[in-house]
Amino acid sequence: MPIRSTTNKDGQSLLHIDGDMTIYTAAEIKDELMAHMAQPCEREIDLSEVSEMDSAGLQILILAKREAEKHGTSLRLTGHSRAVLDVLDMCNLAPYFGDPVVLSCNENKGH
User: The domain containing residue 27 runs over which residues?
Assistant: First the structure.
């Protein structure tokens, strides 16, 4: 399963997506993520272990954001991997999600 779920001490759902978010994994990730999104609660998605992302992966994140808004809850994206940052930057969608993006010194080299 590419999504691991934990809960912090405040009851916030923490979802960790591991591996690729591409057309090849989109159906499985979407099904798992939507099952989690059906439960209205504050939610954070850690993207630090996403190794590859394409437009299908981006569509899943947009869908998750819309589902959270539909339920009146918040969704935060954290730990943006380089693969995620590249797609968000290319599509100019970082502002849509509204989450701070933190770059380490190693990630920022060459850019």
Answer: 3-102
3-state SS assignment for residue 29: helix
Beta pairing, strands 75-78 & 43-53: parallel
The CATH code of the domain that includes 49 is 3.30.750.24
Please give the chain's pLDDT, 111 residues, in tens. 589 999 888 878 899 999 999 999 999 999 999 998 888 888 999 999 999 999 999 999 999 999 999 999 889 999 999 999 999 999 999 899 887 776 555 555 444
Q: Is 110 helix (H, G, I), strand (E, B) or coil?
A: coil
Residues 70-74: contacts with CB under 8 Å, at least 24 apart? 71/37, 71/40, 72/40, 73/40, 73/41, 73/42, 73/43, 74/42, 74/43
- Report the residue count for the chain: 111
Number of domains, the chain: 1
pTM of the predicted model as reported, rounded to 2 decimal places: 0.85
